[in-house]
Amino acid sequence: MVARPNTLLGSLGSMERSDLPYIYHHLRNGCILTVSRMQGMDQQHLLFNVGYAGLHLGVLNRTLADRIVQLEAEGRPYRLTVAGLEREKYLPPTAVHVMLDWGCE
User: Fold this and answer.
1) How confident is the model at residue 3 (pLDDT cuts 50, 70, 90)?
2) Which residues 6+ apart lie within 8 Å of 88 measured at CB?
3) How far apart (Å, rounded) are the C-alpha atoms in residues 101 and 68?
4) Is 63 left (phi over 0), alpha (psi -120 to 50) or beta?
């Protein structure tokens, strides 16, 4: 995974409580993911849920969450995609790497 200009790379957290075992076989590099704020979070403890096809995959790390807050405040478009999956054959992924692009149309 190589970062390009206007991109950040990171990994999802809290995957042990996700729907990943039911959806991982549909995930490929470049799949666009949905991002939504978790309810009841203040600015200091802000978390974003990440999903695919209406199912929960995990939460964003703090660096990516802070960047999304900044992009939303500036009114700039962004996109979160799958950058890579770490897994053993026939098992669900142990890590999901994501890429945040901004300034995309």
Assistant:
1) low
2) 94
3) 10
4) alpha
- Tokens in use for 8? 């950040």
Tokens 């666009």 -> residue = 32
Distance between CA atoms of 78 and 71, rounded to whole angstroms? 7
Work out the widest C-alpha separation in the chain, in whole angstroms: 42
Distance between alpha carbon 11 and the CA centroid of its chain, in Å?
A: 7
Calculate the average pLDDT of the chain. Answer: 85
Whether 47 contacts 60, CB under 8 Å: yes
Element holding 4 (H helix, E strand): none
Planar angle of CA 31, 51, 44, nearest 5 degrees: 120
Dump pLDDT digits (tens) for 15-25.
Answer: 888 888 888 88
The Cα 35–Cα 10 span in angstroms is 14
pLDDT tens string 29-48? 999 999 998 765 555 556 78
Residue 86's identity, in one-letter code, is E
